[in-house]
Amino acid sequence: QVQVVESGGGSVQTGGSLRLSCTVSGLPFGDYTVAWFRQAPGKEREGVSCITWRTDNTYVADSVKGRFTISKDVSKNTLYLQMNNLEPEDTAMYYCAAVVWDCTGSGSANNWGQGTQVTVSS
Fold first, then answer.
1. Which residues contact 2 (CB under 8 A, 6 or more apart)?
2. If residue 79 lies in a helix (H) or strand (E), which one and from where to where?
3. Is 58:69 a contact under the CB 8 Å cutoff?
4. How many CB atoms lie under 10 A from the CB of residue 28?
5. Residues near 42 by Cβ (< 8 Å), separated by ≥ 6?
6. What is the DSSP string of the chain?
7. In angstroms, rounded to a whole number, what is the distance separating the alpha carbons of residues 117 and 119?
8. Would you give per-residue pLDDT tens digits along the chain (122 residues)?
C-alpha cells in the first residue's frame, strides 16, 4: 500500500522561506513522477513542481519559478520543496502526490498526501 506523508508547513512573513518534505513508501521499483500541488481557498488545485523519481526530469510552474526548488533523496524515499521569497499569494494547502500522470493544471495522480498548510502574511 502506497503512503504519502507531508510535513514542514507553517506560517511565515513575506520574503521568508519554508521547506516541505514528503515521505513516500510502498511504491514499486520504476521511474514515475512525484509532485507538489497546492490549493488556495476558493481556487482550483494547481501543479507547483514535479520531478521524475529516477531521471530527474522536472517541471516548475511559472508562478514559482526562481523561488521554489524541488528535490529528492531516493535513499530516504523523500521529496522536498524548498520555498524561498514567499509571497502572500503562495498561501495554500500543499499536497504531495506520487505516480503523477499530469503535473499541469489541477493534476492527476494515483496517490495523494493529506496536505500541509502554508500561510504567508504580508
1. 24, 25, 26, 27, 98, 99, 110, 111
2. strand 78-83
3. no
4. 7
5. none
6. --EEEEE--EEEETT--EEEEEEEESPPSS--EEEEEEE-TTS--EEEEEEETTT--EEE-TTTTTTEEEEEEGGGTEEEEEE-S--GGG-EEEEEEEEEEE-STT-EEEEE---EEEEEE-
7. 6
8. 889 999 999 999 999 999 999 999 998 778 889 999 999 999 999 999 999 998 999 999 999 999 999 999 999 999 999 999 999 999 999 999 999 999 988 888 999 999 999 999 99
Residue 65, pLDDT score = 97
Q: All 3 cell numbers of residue 63?
A: 508562478
**Which amino acid is residue 59, in one-letter code?**
Y
* C-alpha cell of residue 76: 530516504
Q: Please provide residue 74's backbone torsions phi and psi, each rounded to the nearest 5 degrees.
A: -65, -35
β-sheet bridge partners, residue 87:
none
Cα(104)–Cα(25) distance, integer angstroms: 24
